[in-house]
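Structure in, sequence out. Go:
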């Protein structure tokens, strides 16, 4: 296994050397050490070691030249000595760091290899994404994770880029989630890392763990808005969005906002303002991670729209073709006022993740053309134990 890791890491180092030789074009004046080093690094010069010695005669502290001598040296001890000088004197030279990475990985020294990789990623942002993609593919090896965690704990400037890479479908979800789990025990996860961790856990079907990780990332002042697996059913937390909170998207023909005018309860409600154009989607939803069981969903609604078809609050298991619940909300009345609606549904054992969403049951373009306002408030989700379903009720307030 260790041989496999070293072989892959050596491949990474070789790729880095080629990539950087193309992007690192800091060649100076037409003559002098910079021009000579540019010719060496581009592969255009013969007798590289001799040129490096000529450079050192004029500039004895040029670390890049020591890197060339290290790469040309056949004696391992002398090569290590030259390369150590190169790293000390040219710590920001990208190809010097690449050579140090290759040499460490060739010895199977993963920890020192990642130390130099850390330094390189700090100064070479242009190669971060592909480099981190390659590194993420090795996270299944505990040795890689153990060496990577101390580097991440120091909050390098490439840490956010790694979080983005870990979410990509090409990266194995289980080892990526393990890395973030262990990192979170060492230091607080950054917002992008929390999002990546939640995404990975959901991808693995560990929805309850994903929701718990998201909830723990919230400020203490808003955690009380979470009740029975539904977050902010009263729309009192407009600053919390995404994750397992409300996801409110921008839709043509529709303006959605938190509103403080005459809520049913609390200080706010959610208002959807339709401008008469056809709406394809309402863009109001919240992911859930309910345990198997029997539940009641209730909501307060003020319908002052021209909708010819009912609005629905639906709860659907992930990937299920039919919702577990389609709660029909009260239709518009001549004297708009808050009304309450409720319905019951079951979550089967195979349903680890669900989605609560608002939908208009329109069947044609004409039925999607809506004007007026719809308000939602006081949405509640309660487990009911072993009680059987009961008829929905819509009493007026």
């Amino acid at each position: 296994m260790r041989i496999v890791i070293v072989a892959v890491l050596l491949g990474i180092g070789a790729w880095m050397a080629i990539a950087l030789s193309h992007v690192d074009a800091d060649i100076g004046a037409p003559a002098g050490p910079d021009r000579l080093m540019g010719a060496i690094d581009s592969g255009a010069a013969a007798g590289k070691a001799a040129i490096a010695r000529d450079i050192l005669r004029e500039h004895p502290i040029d670390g890049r030249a020591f890197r060339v001598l290290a790469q040309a040296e056949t004696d391992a001890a002398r090569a290590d000595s030259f390369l150590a000088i190169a790293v000390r004197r040219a710590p920001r030279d990208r190809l010097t760091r690449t050579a140090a990475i290759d040499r460490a990985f060739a010895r199977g020294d993963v920890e020192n290899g990642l130390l130099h990789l850390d330094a390189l990623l700090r100064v070479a942002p242009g190669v971060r994404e592909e480099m981190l993609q390659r590194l993420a593919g090795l996270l299944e090896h505990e040795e890689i994770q153990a060496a990577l965690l101390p580097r991440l704990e120091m909050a390098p400037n490439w840490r956010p880029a790694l979080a983005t890479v870990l979410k990509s479908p090409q990266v194995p979800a289980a080892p990526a989630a393990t890395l973030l789990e262990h990192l979170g025990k060492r230091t607080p996860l950054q917002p992008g890392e929390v999002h990546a961790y939640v995404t990975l856990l959901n991808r693995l079907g560990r929805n309850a763990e994903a929701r718990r990780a998201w909830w723990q990332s919230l400020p203490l002042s808003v955690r009380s808005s979470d009740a029975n697996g539904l977050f902010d059913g009263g729309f009192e937390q407009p600053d919390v969005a995404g994750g397992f909170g409300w996801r409110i998207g921008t839709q043509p023909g529709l303006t959605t906002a938190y509103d403080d005018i005459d809520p049913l309860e609390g200080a706010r409600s959610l208002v959807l303002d339709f401008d008469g154009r056809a709406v394809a989607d309402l863009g109001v939803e919240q992911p859930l991670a309910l345990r198997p069981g029997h539940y009641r969903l209730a909501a307060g609604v003020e319908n002052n729209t021209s909708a010819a078809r009912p609005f629905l609050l639906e709860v659907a298991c992930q990937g299920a073709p039919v919702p577990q619940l389609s709660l029909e909300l009260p239709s518009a009345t001549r004297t708009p006022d808050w009304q309450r609606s409720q319905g019951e549904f079951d979550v089967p054992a195979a349903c680890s993740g669900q989605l609560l969403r608002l939908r208009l049951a329109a069947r044609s373009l004409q039925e999607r053309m809506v004007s007026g306002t719809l308000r939602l408030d006081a949405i509640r989700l309660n487990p009911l134990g072993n009680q059987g379903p009961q008829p929905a009720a819509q009493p007026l307030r």
